[in-house]
Amino acid sequence: MDSISPQTTPPLAADARPPRIWKFWGTTLWGLFIFAAMFAGQLAVVAWFVLRQEGDVDLATSIRAIGGGLTIALSVIMGLPAVAAACWIAIKPSRTPFAEYLGLRWTSWKNAALGIVSLVVLVGCWDLLSRALGREITPGFMGDVLKSAQADGALWLLVIAFCVAAPISEELFARGFLYRGWSESRLGPTGAILLSSIAWTSLHLQYDWFFFCEVFSIGLLFGYIRHRTGSTWLTIVLHGLNNLAATVQTIYLTGS
Questions:
Q1: What is the pTM of this model?
Q2: What digits encode the pLDDT tens for the residues 85-124?
């Protein structure tokens, strides 16, 4: 009888939009949006330094302001919140948790040790090749930027920018967002590693062809580690250690 039958809880309505991952075109278009956000965040700092110059703003004054160590440090740091916010905007419609989408999970210490050893071997090989070719081991512009930052009393800020802010923002973009979406498209993990490495390398146009190739090879290593361990935190740590080693090496070689 209806009057004495137990009350049943109505079933929950099914979610019409289950969690998903952007595929090739979605990842590509949102990736352009994230890149634009990074560029806008960095450009805002550069514009502020240029506009605050006293007197008439000419080309020479603008170049000095843009190339200053303090300007570069702050612009790199400001790129981080811009990238994080843009990633959040891109991921939110997918209904996938932010950390899960970007692979922000740790892995085993064994994987971390293997990653460090692999990175040391790879960079060491490039250093040996650089010496064999009679080239400088570190990019010349890095020495100039470090000296400029030291003159401005902002060397510590530049180290934070290079070794903390840049690795986090670039890894969230390349090995976090781009790799995740492209790896689940028709490209598969191999194509995603290759394409995300190209995208990441394109952020380093300040280098010449030799260092450009070195950056690309490091990107391939980071992409493989991301695929093998599923951890973007590990690539962030490795990226930071690589930048720290390069910064210390440049300071030592240039006497900054």
A1: 0.88
A2: 999 999 999 999 999 999 999 999 999 999 999 999 999 9
Q: Which two tokens stand for residue 180?
A: 């995740």
* Size (the chain), residues: 256
SS (H, E, C) 39-65: HHHHHHHHHHHHHCCCCCCCHHHHHHH
Contact 226, 104 (CB under 8 A): no
Closest CA to 139 of 199, 68, 213, 80: 213
On whether the CB atoms of residues 74 and 161 are closer than 8 A, the answer is: yes
Domain extent listing, the chain: 24-254
Assess contact for 103 and 232: CB atoms under 8 A: yes
User: How does pLDDT run across 15-51, given as a tens digit for each residue?
Assistant: 566 788 999 999 999 999 999 999 999 999 988 877 7
Q: Cα separation of 98 and 96, whole Å? A: 6
For the residues 42-61, what does the mean pLDDT come to?
Answer: 73
Q: How far is CA 37 from CA 101, 173, 237, in A?
A: 19, 11, 23
Rounded CA-CA distance 74/30 in Å is: 25
